[in-house]
Amino acid sequence: MRTKTLYNSEGKRTGFEIDFMLTMRKVKKVLSNMEGITDVQTRRLFSDFSDWVHMRFRYKGIPFVVMEPFGDSDCLCIVTEEFGDNGDAIAALEGAFAAFPKKSGKPVSAG
Hints:
The protein is α+β, with helices and mostly antiparallel strands. The protein has helices spanning about 25-30, 85-100; strands at about 5, 15-20, 35-40, 55-60, 60-65, 75-80. The chain has one domain (about 5-100).
């Protein structure tokens, strides 16, 4: 799947974009195959999530959200809620989504 890395004004990696056609169920599937993912919470009716946030989770203790920018977009953003140097964690997450093919739903094998 194609991803697009997101950077802040200081040039630090803050997250990445994925195709909106990837459902929350598939996002959860990608995350469930990664070590270090905890506290996965999906938005429910009348939840305290903002309108743009669909899911929250932690990767190696770092809080992330899956959000739809502007509430009506053609992409989803997976961004950290922490303003530290989390480039390695973001790169690992982005790599997991990049290896997930858009159509078949099975990870791409390297062999």
